[in-house]
Amino acid sequence: xxxxxxxxxxxxxxxxxxxxxxxxxxxxxxxxxxxxxxxxxxxxxxxxxxxxxxxxxxxxxxxxxxxxxxxxxxxxxxxxxxxxxxxxxxxxxxxxxxxxxxxxxxxxxxxxxxxxxxxxxxxxxxxxxxxxxxxxxxxxx
Length: 141
Prior knowledge:
single chain; Lipocalin; 8-stranded antiparallel β-barrel; 8 strands; 0% helix; 54% strand; globular
């Protein structure tokens, strides 16, 4: 089953939560967030998967959820439709549970509506009216 692609990831522990972007491609994991780079590998078996994920700090920022600048997490999870959920533990903090939800992200932006692209909105009488917040009274129309 093909699950390669770009995913928004929401992760959480009892210490807090965060978000990032993951790219899954041919058994490899890459990605990151504002403070960390993600790398690793995964094995997919139908809808179930196992993964080894490593995070490495690349920018100064708040403390991590695991109190370490580099974290290695072993995960198991499953896909349900296009979304996935997984859980696991960091190697250096086995008492702290880690959960994540992967939400697929489309790689392309939707096409704009061509019929009104670049046009101003039209009022009920067919004319465009500018609302001026500094004007008072009934002339705001």
